[in-house]
Amino acid sequence: MSEAPNPNIIDADTLTGEMRPIRRVVVGLGSNLGERLDNLQGAVDALADTPDVWITGISPVYESEPVGCPPDSPKFLNAVVLMDTTLSAHRLLDRALAIEDAYDRDRSHGVNSPRTLDVDLIVVGDRRSDTEALKLPHPLAHERSFVLRPWLDLEPDAEIPDQGPISVLLEKVGTDGLDRRDDLVLESDE
Ligand SMILES: Nc1ncnc2c1ncn2[C@@H]1O[C@H](COP(=O)(O)OP(=O)(O)OP(=O)(O)O)[C@@H](O)[C@H]1O
Ligand SMILES: Nc1nc2c(c(=O)[nH]1)N=C(CO)CN2
């Protein structure tokens, strides 16, 4: 994220009148099971339909070799979505998990087993968290080309708090195993 949330930009809650800061959010999407593009598009649509969330950017789609997955796992499609929101990080996480569940995400198998849909919060404004339920910034984002590369397409000057510019991080990590799929496009219905 290239800038901290602007504390002067606020939104009044329509019911309570409470003023809430607008946070810039980076979301990572992944799928390596089922109709992968449809799954990613469903996640984009569900995020766009979320009250108090405004999508500001949708990256190109990348196909990527599975990283840290069981042997013979299928390739992923990955993309990144940028949003503005007045929701808290915890509300966003609840929403992300609910969207995964709507795509029959099966959590009963082992670590990094193939999944219909993964919705990861990468950065939420300048929010930091280190609980099991919510880690922000996402602790592996800085070493994942399938997050950094699509994010770079949208925000070349972005930085991950405490890690640095994503352009520099991507140079360290490289882009082996990553293919931009210009034949696959995620649409915004807004
Ligand atoms: N930044 C975050 N974004 C999404 N989920 C998170 C985050 N931080 C912690 N979690 C927790 O991680 C759990 C999701 O684990 P899951 O099995 O989907 O991990 P994963 O997405 O497969 O792995 P990875 O975290 O390596 O991408 C959720 O229960 C959620 O509470
Ligand atoms: N290429 C790729 N590899 C992964 C991905 C992913 O989205 N893409 N997600 C993982 C766990 O969330 C583990 N490994």
Automatic annotation (TrEMBL):
Origin superkingdom: Bacteria
Catalytic activity field: 6-hydroxymethyl-7,8-dihydropterin + ATP = (7,8-dihydropterin-6-yl)methyl diphosphate + AMP + H(+)
Pathway connected to this protein: Cofactor biosynthesis; tetrahydrofolate biosynthesis; 2-amino-4-hydroxy-6-hydroxymethyl-7,8-dihydropteridine diphosphate from 7,8-dihydroneopterin triphosphate: step 4/4
Pfam families xref list: HPPK (PF01288)
Domain 7,8-dihydro-6-hydroxymethylpterin-pyrophosphokinase: 26-156
Keywords: ATP-binding, Folate biosynthesis, Kinase, Nucleotide-binding, Transferase
Entry GO MF terms: 2-amino-4-hydroxy-6-hydroxymethyldihydropteridine diphosphokinase activity; ATP binding; kinase activity
EC number: 2.7.6.3
InterPro entries assigned to the protein according to its UniProt record, in alphabetical order: Hppk (IPR000550), Hppk_sf (IPR035907)
Example of a GO biological process term: folic acid biosynthetic process
NCBIfam families: folK
Stated name of the protein: 2-amino-4-hydroxy-6-hydroxymethyldihydropteridine diphosphokinase
